[in-house]
Amino acid sequence: MVEGVVGPADQQTGAPGSGSRRSRASTSRYGFGALGLDLVDSRVEESVLGLLESVEDELRASVASADPFVTEAARHLVEAGGKRFRPMLVALGAQFGDPTGAQVVPAAVVMELTHLATLYHDDVMDEAAVRRGAPSANSRWTNSVAILVGDYLFARAADIAADLGPEAVRLQARTFARLVHGQIAETVGPRAGDDPVDHYLSVIAEKTGSLIATSARFGGMFGGASAEHVEALAGYGETIGVAFQLSDDLLDIASESVQSGKTPGTDLREGVPTLPVLYALASDDADASSVRLREILSAGKVTDDDLHAEALCLLRESPALKRARETVRSYAEEARQRLAPLPDNSPRRALESLCDFIADRTS
Questions:
Q1: Most CB atoms within 10 A, among 3, 29, 152, 318?
Q2: Are strands 134-135 and 130-131 parallel, antiparallel or unpaired?
Q3: Region (Disordered) spans which residues (predicted)?
């Protein structure tokens, strides 16, 4: 596609004259600044925002059921909001073809429904009480209801994917399989002889990178991009997905604020072995700070307030955090390199802006 040539925003939202008004309202809603996304070109911005608004409408319609309770429970997380990162990547991927294609919005809905379904299941496994600032489905209703609603959303995603063709069904199923493999690997933990860091990076690629990769792939596919460009988008999506998750790990330790969306040190308090912690535990540094840090972390959950504060302080000054930052930057740079086959246009520069953001946000 020629740079900047996008369909009218009004055509994408389906409401005459509504494109500009809805786009202005949506810019803050989708938090592009919080994601570090610079859409560069106003016409690309209008196109992406128009697509995302259409996705919102379709999400609500797609989870409706003849049973009012099912509709309420299924819309629970839809209405809780979120950045819609996966639909956004579908919309950006479509810019390398025709973003007004009839199947672009349904493809984005498939990706977001699949993501939302995993959140219902994750909250049950994590015994979470809150999701996106609202009571989680399992705390509002029961674990059984949350699991079944997650299953319902997976089914709805598969139903919509069927209208996109056999290849879409196959890709969505394979992505779902990777998600499940990643969750199983995380639950079981590294086996004897496995390197904990390699295991952790593999889990993130399966649980997070896989769906983001398919989102970018779907954008290219259903926008009609070339096969070479579709593969470049998929490779970018997986790598940027891993980079984002790893950068969140670092923010949980390094941020003095709630920049990561949760209280700093939450993972440490809950015993979640994120990358900086794994690097610290694997270190053989003999200085007093490193030895003391390993001693605290080896206990798993750090719930004592004094020990928690000490561990956070030691981690922030540790070689492990520096090494983790270097790992994040390497993934961000790899994601940028994956974009090399794509034309040097505004959509590509928008995708590159995410790489810059990730490399800088944890410095």
A1: 318
A2: antiparallel
A3: 1-26
